[in-house]
């Protein structure tokens, strides 16, 4: 399978496992899971067939480990805009986390902090390099430093997804360090 096909399948999975499962007639359970066979059948019936082998390769080879398959079911590790409970326990974050964005968002972030927007949580990276990659998806990256230790000390909770993305409800601007 070529790289373009892998990307198309990955984007298809993101759309339907994180945002619009009803679009292809699937229902995610409370934890965000759906049977692999149900997903494959629905995708084929809606004009985007892919094989179990292609699905397994996309899940295994995705550099961000966005999806997981367990016991014949699949789900996205985080990033949902539909109601799911990933059942992630509260975790002690490292002292600092990072968030990649672009310059056009910085003014709003300075005023409001980091908000989840259309997702359930704010996504934070464990290292500057990952945040740089995330920010560069939409232009020249700007990497913000999050004082996670201070946030935790102030009572904010953090969770970490299976693929290492740190999640929190909101990052107030007082806990952010801006470049320059």
TrEMBL record:
It comes from the Bacteria. Pfam families: PTS_2-RNA (PF01885). Keywords: NAD, Transferase. It is an enzyme of class 2 (transferase). The keyword Ribonucleoprotein does not apply. Its EC number is 2.7.1.-. The keyword Magnesium does not apply. GO terms for biological process: tRNA splicing, via endonucleolytic cleavage and ligation. Signal peptide: none annotated. GO terms for molecular function: NAD+ poly-ADP-ribosyltransferase activity; tRNA 2'-phosphotransferase activity. Removes the 2'-phosphate from RNA via an intermediate in which the phosphate is ADP-ribosylated by NAD followed by a presumed transesterification to release the RNA and generate ADP-ribose 1''-2''-cyclic phosphate (APPR>P). May function as an ADP-ribosylase. Belongs to the KptA/TPT1 family. This is Probable RNA 2'-phosphotransferase. The lineage of its organism: Bacteria, Bacillati, Actinomycetota, Actinomycetes, Streptosporangiales.
């Amino acid at each position: 399978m070529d790289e373009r096909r892998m990307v198309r399948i990955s984007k298809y999975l993101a759309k339907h496992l994180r945002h619009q499962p009803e679009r292809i007639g699937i229902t995610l359970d409370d934890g965000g899971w759906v049977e692999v066979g149900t997903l494959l059948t629905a995708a084929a019936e809606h004009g985007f067939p892919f094989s179990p082998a292609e699905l397994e390769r996309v899940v295994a080879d995705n550099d961000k480990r966005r999806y997981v398959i367990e016991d014949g079911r699949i789900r996205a590790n985080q990033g949902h805009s539909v109601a799911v409970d990933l059942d992630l326990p509260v975790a002690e974050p490292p002292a600092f986390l990072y968030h990649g964005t672009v310059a056009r968002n910085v003014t709003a972030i300075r005023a409001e902090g980091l908000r989840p927007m259309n997702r359930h949580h704010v996504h934070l990276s464990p290292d500057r390099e990952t945040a740089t990659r995330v920010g560069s998806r939409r232009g020249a990256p700007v990497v913000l430093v999050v004082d996670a230790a201070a946030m935790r000390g102030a009572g904010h909770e953090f969770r970490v997804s299976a693929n290492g993305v740190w999640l929190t409800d909101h990052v107030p601007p007082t806990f952010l360090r801006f470049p320059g």
